[in-house]
Design brief:
This protein is mainly beta and about 625 residues long. About 10% of the residues lie in helices and about 30% in strands. The protein folds into three domains: about 160 residues, Thrombin, subunit H (Beta Barrel), CATH 2.40.10; about 100 residues, Thrombin, subunit H, CATH 2.40.10.10; about 270 residues, Thrombin, subunit H, CATH 2.40.10. Strands 8, 9, 10, 11, 12, 13, 14 and 15 form an eight-stranded mixed β-sheet that branches. Strands 5-4-1-2-3-7-6 form a seven-stranded antiparallel β-sheet, with no helix packed on it. Helix 6 crosses helix 7. The termini are far apart.
Length: about 625
């Protein structure tokens, strides 16, 4: 009896040592002495379903790819090979990978073995042949490989990347492809998993043995039933394979052995197949065989990000509690517009009108504004290492001492590096309406301080946390009919609160004829729901739309933002005042051809633009702007 207890203690000690301080790593891997006469070590590696959020592909049926996962009884009777199965082969060697199509441009590869070394750094891509689709009846045919699949002549491998999300052994790869046609080749992608795992659901496995790629029925065990009395792999191997991600394991028995666990279910009246798990390791206990699979939700985001024609709808976190009571003025008298005035006076402060400048474009497809209609709009001039750029960006006046703008406006690209501008390199122009009118009463001065949001990363091209403050002394500004601040948002922060409303943005610059406008232009933009924005271009907005951090607006296909329009405010008119809700941040570029030369410009009226959502940063703004009273920062 004493020896049995000591043996059990030794096993527990071994686990703790291997875990190297992760005492809680195996809390749910149960180790028990079941009775005093016979020692039984019971090991249950599957902890149960991880607390993943189910994927949302943003379409009504929530399918990863249109038409995916269908394998009709007629097709099953014709061939045992599913329509998503492919083989990748090196054309000059007898080396293969098996794979599953998950879209028209990507497949998950496995069982690569010796071919792996040829995939490193995307070498030898031109040597990869892709087979799939219609089964060959004559194996000797020139277009058929040993598995009876036809050669897809036009399909080319574009890249091969190891999947890293909790799969550290390079057994699974994602191959992107070009020129693969699903039509006419009896090819159809497998659906990616899109719903809760339910143990009583119907599961199947694809078998990979010689020429047998058939599907077999399979039972998914409940976590408490996924147990054996000993492991075929050691505890140290268990840690190497799976680290501390045991809550992501699923378990099967009746083991015919297959790499990918598939959920077959009736989905909205159609039988579809969903990729649910990737094989991890086998547990043997005498004649008892159990296989463990990684829950698809643990690696699905990585797979989608690597796949050119798949996208996930961005997760929407809850909006923050609002900072100001409804109707509160963040600065006294903010957001009001006076009638147009004929002003002949001229400010005597620092200006740079006579300096050499490189103009860049702004609002595309807008209309002319009236003098004094947008008194909070600031035009920013950069005095950087690359020269002087008039109207390089816009900004929004919010008090006597602060302007809100986009963080990326305060960097310049010098030899491929993002170099931050100093305050003395940023000139603020308030009240600017006509760039050619040297006598109009602008208020121009240099910023005293620049405050970029601490979470902004200038190397992220489609900018997150794209917000900054320009600070200056209160005596630099003289509020009048032409210079006046906009109000900070005073209402609920949710996107639903502004969906289908109109916002207003402004700037100087490129017209539809791609000529620079010398007068301040404005455009009304529509604010769609996050989902409507995502569906307009799923790949772009699936990656760059970050709900609560930014939102979409635009007037497709009529108007858009253009280069240099960044930083300007999107204001919404309500209750007789103009409230700042967004900052012009980024947009999907468009290629144009001028004089037989191709250019990429950020003036694409066909798609919405992205605006930094100011409400997400109001507390940061209030904390750093001295003349916006902090005592108003009370949650209502």
């Amino acid at each position: 009896m004493t020896g049995q207890v000591l043996y059990c203690i030794a096993i527990i000690t071994h686990i703790i040592v291997i875990a190297q301080g992760k005492e809680n790593l195996f809390n749910d891997i149960k180790i028990q002495v079941q009775n005093s006469d016979q020692e039984i070590v019971k090991i249950c590696p599957a902890r149960g379903r991880a607390n993943f959020q189910d994927p949302d592909f943003g379409v009504e049926e929530n399918l990863s790819f249109d038409g995916c996962g269908i394998w009709s009884p007629e097709q099953m009777n014709k061939t045992s090979t599913p329509p998503w199965f492919i083989v990748a082969k090196l054309n000059d060697r007898d080396l293969y990978c098996f794979g599953y199509l998950i879209s028209e441009k990507a497949a998950i590869l496995f069982e690569c073995n010796e071919i792996i070394i040829y995939f490193e750094n995307n070498a030898n891509l031109s040597k990869i042949q892709i087979f799939g689709g219609e089964s060959c009846q004559e194996i000797e045919q020139q277009d058929c490989n040993r598995f009876g699949l036809q050669l897809l002549n036009d399909a080319k491998a574009k890249g091969v990347t190891p999947l890293k999300s909790h799969l550290n052994d390079k057994r699974f790869w994602l191959m992107t492809m070009t020129n693969l046609s699903l039509n006419g080749n009896n090819l159809l992608p497998l659906c990616l998993y899109n719903g809760h795992v339910i143990p009583d659901d119907f599961y199947v496995l694809n078998i990979f043995r010689q020429y047998d790629f058939s599907i077999r029925n399979m039972t998914l065990l409940k976590p408490e039933d996924c147990c054996i009395n000993k492991l075929s792999v050691g505890i140290d191997e268990l840690i190497q394979y799976w680290g501390d991600h045991f809550e992501e394991l699923m378990c099967t028995s009746d083991n015919p052995w297959g790499h990918l666990l598939i959920n077959r279910k009736n989905y909205n009246g159609t039988t579809r197949h969903f990729l649910t798990g990737i094989w991890r390791f086998k547990m043997l206990d005498g004649e008892k065989h159990l296989d463990t699979y990684a829950d698809a939700r643990g690696w699905l985001e990585e797979v989608v990000n690597l796949t050119p024609d798949l996208s996930l709808f961005p997760k929407i976190p809850p909006a923050k509690p609002r900072l100001f009571e409804s109707g509160y003025e963040s600065f006294p008298g903010c957001g009001k517009v006076q009638k147009e005035l004929n002003v002949a006076t001229r400010m005597k402060k620092y200006r740079s009108t006579e300096l050499q400048a490189k103009p860049i474009g702004l609002v595309f497809g807008g209309e002319g504004s009236r003098r004094g209609e947008l008194p909070w709009h600031a035009s920013l001039t950069q005095h950087g290492k690359l020269g002087i750029l008039h109207d390089a960006c816009g900004g929004t006046l919010i008090s006597k001492t602060a302007i809100v703008t986009a963080a990326h406006c305060l960097y310049e690209d010098v030899n491929g590096k993002k170099v931050p501008l100093e305050a003395k390199q940023v000139e603020v122009n308030l009240g600017k309406y006509d760039a050619e009118d040297t006598k109009e009463p602008r208020q121009s001065f240099l910023a005293k301080d620049i405050l970029v949001h601490p979470d902004y990363n200038p190397h992220n091209f489609y900018y997150e946390n794209d917000i900054a403050l320009l600070l200056f002394d209160s005596n630099e500004t003289n509020f009048n009919e032409l210079v006046h601040p906009a109000c900070l948002w005073d209402d609920d922060y949710s996107i639903e609160n502004i969906t289908d409303q109109l916002g207003e943005v402004a700037g100087f610059g490129l017209t539809e004829e791609r000529q620079r406008s010398h007068q301040l232009k404005k455009v009304e933009v529509e604010i769609p729901s996050h989902q409507a924005c995502f569906l307009q271009n799923k790949k772009f907005f699936g990656k760059n739309l970050k709900p609560t951090m930014n939102f979409c607006a635009g007037k497709p296909p009529v108007a858009a933002n253009c280069v240099g329009d960044s930083g300007g405010g999107l204001t919404i008119y309500k209750k007789g005042k103009h409230y700042l809700r967004g900052i012009t941040s980024s947009a999907l570029p468009k290629k144009i051809e001028v004089a037989s030369m191709e250019f990429t410009v950020v003036c694409n009226p066909d798609f919405y633009s992205l605006y930094t959502d100011v409400t997400n940063y109001l507390e940061w703004i209030v904390d750093n702007v001295p003349d916006i009273e902090k005592k108003t920062a009370t949650n209502f």
